What does this fold into?
Amino acid sequence: MAPPPPSSASVSQPVIDAAGSAPPDNQTQPLAVVADRLPWRHTFISLTVPNFRIFAAGHFIAVIAIWMQRIAQDWLVLQLSGSVTAVGFTVALQFLPSLLLGPWGGMIADRFAKRKILILCQSMAAILAASLATLALTGVIMVWHVYAIALVLGLVTVLDQPARQVFVNELVGPTYLRNAISVNSTTFQLGGLIGPAIAGLLLTAVGAGWAFAANAVACCSTVVMLLVLRKDQLHVNAPTPKSKGMLREGLRYALSKPTIYWPWLMAGFISVFAMSLPVVLAAFADHVFKVGAGGYGVLNALVALGALSGAIASTRRRQLRLRSVVFCAGMYGLMLCLAALAPSMVWFGVVMVLSGFWCLMFLTGSNQLVQVSSNMGIRGRVMSLYIMVLIGGQALGGPMLGWIAEHADPHVALLVSGGVPSLAAMTVAAILARKGSLQLTVDWRDRRHPVRIARRVAA
It folds into this structure.
């Protein structure tokens, strides 16, 4: 049994009124998560929960394999077609179902047992990965095979992602939820650091087929992990009964809370323009730096290295502010713009590390803010809307950035990828500052916080 939380780790919900929305004057106030800085031994305190420890171990293996498949799939399409646009189209097929059907996946997650949904989805993912591996290893694979399997995998993701997001709460309960989200992000990025590197080696040595085979085995291990969880230790909430207008209810709820719809809006800009970064990196690896499959894996691993640092840093964040989430989104966009101007691959790689850091600071902060701001009975639908934007937006951004990289220039594609989210973040920040009567103050006498945001004093 997990030990009781330390007194410094008290979790609080955002202040809401009877209508379920944040008061106007609290729209940019900090969401207090911990009162004092946690000791380092509590950085991953959610892992003291046995069920979550099992889940995290299985998830780590699966994530490495997922990254291997993603890198191998993109590079395989590039080699088969010779087109960066085709790589973007593959991304679009994989994420288009989330864009079109995402809310229904959230409704199913609210109505049925999340663990059973995940077992079903991971079993299907194993079959798809095994099919891809068989086609690649027998040498008969064609681009349309990858397209078809990517589309079916996207349909599986529609059910898998909202159930996975909400299942974390069932594993750890509300006390450790925020920390568990950060641990999941850390696991994902650590897998993202290892997976691309292994994929690069496999692509160079034996081809893409073995990367797909590894993912099939990993999906099977995830199913086993889900089956061995202690059901009596899950924090299971009663399923939401079916009723008319469930999707509209979820949308109204999300739009009524600034701590949900502003992160949702920023996630849209990040998703469409900046989350299809592997597509642009494929163009840089093949056309700009000419470093081949191994170099492509290294570039993705550098992004994951920065993201891993960001995920760990997010576990140390004492307060969760809406404006800090917007700031992280803007910094991510700025880093991508700087990468487009990098004079060499060395400097490009350095900025990729920084890009990964700010991307993960945004993603974890945004995810935490949306989840903590949502009641459990509707959280599946709220998260499905968030995922619909975050994942589904890549169905639009992947082909767009691939086309720009191929027909204009990879540097232009990267400038668009970072420039639009940066401008969006500045616009949202200005709106929040005006609503919250905030202003930027500079005081060089304050050595700890020479530049800070403070409430405007009335004249």
